[in-house]
Design brief:
251 residues; alpha/beta; seven-stranded parallel sheet; 9 helices; 7 strands; globular
Length: 251
Amino acid sequence: MSRLKDKVAIVTGAAQGIGETYAKAMAAEGAKVVVSDIADSSRVADEINAGGGTAIAVSADVTSDDSIADMVAETDKQFGPIEILVNNAALFAELRLTPIMEMSNEEWDRVMTVNARGSFQCIKGVVPSMLANGRGKIINISSGTFYYGGPGFANYVSSKGAILGLTRSAAREFGDKNIFVNCIVPGFTESEGVANHPQLHVARAPTIASRILKRDMVPEDLVGTLIFLASEDSDFLSGQSINVDGGRYCQ
């Protein structure tokens, strides 16, 4: 497949889990992929290259403008102007169920800073390169927990609600610049983080029961929507949020 042939893409939070799946899927479609993470992402880049794809690993902190600028500069140097940004980096697996009345301001701020402000900062950092490219695709990642509420995760749920608002505002601001901004809203996904989480197993059975499609959701279930939004197939689509959740929330 080559729907993204030679397009330059950055995937944040791609050292493992769903971000790794995103990066490998885009490389399989021909993209030149920057595998970005605050953790070491070299394994993922090496596996992409060993499989015949093209990737580099770049360490980046999405809450640091300087770190984002270095990521963009390295991408431009290695591959050229950026066309695709997947704003995937977020705190989730390390979070524990904490009621609002027990949640500290610091816990709230930490999650909001990484999950919401991090996507905002990456957009600001990458758009100049997209303007040089002449077009761009920004794909934000929200969460179906926003629709449900997710008790014990008020900081996470709120941060993912902010992503929906950011998607709509950014789409309107950049539409006349040939930059498309859309959002994937995943359901409860059997990622590494979920599988290893000590508390989330209780959500599995009721989540499956609430879906139209009665099975576990895996990271690969998100790939089709990702590639669609990253490719020219979605060139008349912007400001949209697409639920990929097995039909749990019908809109």
